[in-house]
Write a structure and sequence with these properties.
Strand content of chain B: 5-15%
Strand order of the largest sheet of chain B: 3-2-1-8-4-5-6-7
CATH class of the largest domain in chain B: Mainly Beta
Order of helices and strands of chain B: HHHHHHHHEEEEEHEEHEH
CATH architecture of the largest domain in chain B: Beta Barrel
Helix content of chain B: 55-70%
Oligomer: heterodimer
CATH topology of the largest domain in chain B: L,D-transpeptidase catalytic domain-like
Radius of gyration of chain B: 42 Å
Largest sheet of chain B: 8 strands, mixed
Number of helices of chain A: 7
Structural class of chain B: alpha+beta
Number of helices of chain B: 11
Structural class of chain A: mainly alpha
Order of helices and strands of chain A: HHHHHHH
Shape of chain B: rod-shaped
Largest interface: A-B, 51 and 59 residues
Number of domains of chain B: 3
Strand content of chain A: under 5%
Radius of gyration of chain A: 32 Å
Largest sheet of chain A: none
Distance between the termini of chain B: 124 Å
CATH superfamily of the largest domain in chain B: L,D-transpeptidase catalytic domain-like
């Protein structure tokens, strides 16, 4: 009887020992989560949404794997640890790529800002040359209204740029640039028609 | 006896040893299995939904799918903390299954929404660009308030921003911009067309004047000049047949009849040339003075003074001419009609004192014009 009890206890102890051999890789999970958070802070979701989604999904996959291991009697976290390390590498890569992409967009916005300022400056010089007659005309009023809208869009784009919202600034400045260029063409055509040198 | 006892112990030990793996196998077998497959599938479907932009175009369903997936994971981890044989993964399984269903729906809805939005945006861009074309065609030179002009400009800019976003595949952003643009442009277009319609209420009177002028020209085999203010045309008739057609420039405030001196409006009515000024008598190359104000204009002016719609200090306009120096591409006169110098030379040559000059808002009705 005594032996039977001893054997039973030994079996339970063995199960307990075996079931607690693997320990949740919390440090690695935290490191992966922190790397993803860093990529998020770097605005990876804005500049590289597909890559960011992929790295997030990789972490979700590993977390499923870890939960599956934790459900087992005999746990094995080695492969999950390796995958978590890959997630960290991938997230760091995405963060670095985001920084590069952000710089590219920032540069593009800055270039467009410079070029639009040149066009606006030229428009500013050309518009007063338009034949104003005795009191101006509806056409000039519309051109003036369009110029004011372009100016407002540039100010708005500059505000977004200063705030670091380069992607939003890019869309705004692109549209403003197209409009300013169209106005420039319109004004030049009007001046040519009125036989005014510019 | 003692030997027998030893053998008995050995056999028992051997049996126990043989039973251990069986017990372990049994213990392993009895561990409840988590729904790893279901959770994994839900994750994959959510990932697919994300790559189909469900977070933007099927926000609610995608959000629900993610929340259900999170619930599945939370419950799974919760069950994992319980004693191994007491674990129950039913809730995990149910959450994962629901999550996958929602994610599948989110993908489907997102795809449909993207397709629909794409079509809708193209249609809206097309119709708003047409509207901008109409505005440019009919209202660029039409006197509108600064506020309406500003709204038109903002509407055009937002339309441009919407097109930029559309080209980048940012349909939600494009839709937001086009909705704002549509509001501004539609509203402005409505105000402008209402004003134009009101102006064209006088069309039956204009038509009557034009018909009379052409009839007189036919009857007398004489020249008759008709000025169409809206289409900025100077039509010269001889014997009831149009002989010349020239572009004209008017006063800034050309819509409506001239009411008072300095209102920059070109009068509307049936007039006659009263004097001809050669190049040495006018600063505008050559000029033809008309009999504005005629009796009808004076009557209208006095009525307005009496009604108080014009101040007592107001003075009636005068010195309205058809003159040269035109071709500037804008409306710039004080209310006169300007032609290019070469065209003025032709009109000056055929005109004489008494030649009828009929000035109307339009020679065609609004429907014909907008068509």
């Amino acid at each position: 009887m005594k032996n039977k009890i001893l054997m039973g206890l030994a079996a339970i102890a063995m199960v307990a020992v075996l079931s607690s051999c693997g320990k949740t890789p919390q440090v690695e999970i935290d490191a992966a989560s922190a790397a993803i958070e860093a990529a998020k802070t770097a605005e990876a979701a804005v500049y590289l949404p597909a890559e960011f989604a992929a790295v997030q999904d990789s972490l979700n996959a590993v977390m499923t794997e870890i939960a599956a291991q934790e459900s087992k009697l005999f746990k094995k976290f080695g492969p999950a640890k390796a995958k978590l390390a890959s997630v960290v590498t991938l997230a760091n890569q995405v963060a670095a790529n985001t920084a590069t992409k952000k710089d590219e967009v920032k540069g593009e916005v800055a270039n467009l800002m410079t070029s639009i300022k040149t066009v606006i400056e030229e428009n500013g010089k050309l518009i007063p040359k338009l034949p104003r007659g005795k009191e101006g005309a509806a056409v000039i009023e519309q051109i003036k209204a369009d110029v004011a809208t372009v100016d407002a869009a540039v100010v708005e784009a500059q505000g977004l740029f200063d705030k670091g919202s380069y992607m939003d600034a890019l869309n705004k400045i692109n549209a403003a640039n197209e409009k300013a260029t169209a106005l420039n063409t319109e004004v030049k055509e009007a001046l040519t028609k009125a036989r005014i040198k510019f | 006896m003692r030997l027998k006892k030893v053998w008995k112990k050995r056999i028992l030990f051997a049996v126990i040893l043989a039973l251990i793996p069986l017990v372990i196998m049994l213990l392993v077998k009895l561990v409840p299995q988590p729904p790893k497959g279901e959770v994994e599938y839900a994750r994959l479907v959510i990932s697919q939904a994300a790559s189909n932009n469900a977070a933007i175009y099927s926000k609610k369903l995608y959000g629900e799918a993610k929340a259900l997936y999170d619930s599945a994971m939370v419950n799974w981890n919760k069950e994992n903390r319980r004693f191994i044989y007491f674990r129950n993964y039913e809730k995990v399984s149910s959450f994962a299954e629901l999550s996958a269903k929602k994610a599948e729906q989110a993908t489907k809805v997102s795809k449909n929404n993207v397709t629909d939005l794409n079509i809708l945006l193209k249609h809206k861009m097309d119709s708003l660009n047409k509207m901008v074309g109409q505005i440019n065609k009919y209202f660029t030179a039409y006197p509108l308030s600064d506020e309406v002009r500003s709204r038109i400009s903002k509407g055009k800019m937002l339309l441009k921003e919407s097109e930029v976003a559309f080209k980048k595949g940012q349909f939600a952003d494009s839709n937001k911009k086009i909705t704002e643009s549509e509001l501004l442009l539609t509203d402005s277009y409505k105000i402008a067309t209402t004003s134009l319609k009101e102006y064209f209420n006088s069309y039956p009177v204009w038509k009557n004047w034009v018909d009379k002028a052409i009839k007189e020209s036919r009857k007398n085999m004489s020249y008759s000049i008709i000025i169409d203010k809206y289409s900025r045309k100077c039509l010269v008739y001889l014997g009831g047949v149009k002989k010349y057609e020239y572009h004209v420039e008017l006063g800034k405030n050309w819509v409506g009849d001239k009411r008072v001196r300095g209102d920059k409006a070109t009068p509307e009515g049936m007039y006659r040339i009263t004097r001809k000024f050669g190049s040495n008598k006018t600063k505008y190359h050559k000029a033809l003075l008309i009999n504005y104000p005629n009796e009808t204009d004076k009557e209208e002016f006095n009525k307005e003074i009496a009604k108080g719609t014009l101040p007592r200090s107001a003075k009636i306009g005068s010195l309205i001419e058809i003159h040269g120096d035109g071709g500037r591409g804008i409306d710039w006169t004080e209310g006169c009609v300007a032609l290019t110098n070469s065209e003025m030379d032709v009109v000056y040559k055929i005109a004489s004192e008494g030649t009828p000059v009929t000035i109307v808002g339009s020679t065609v009705n609004l429907n014909q014009l907008l068509d």
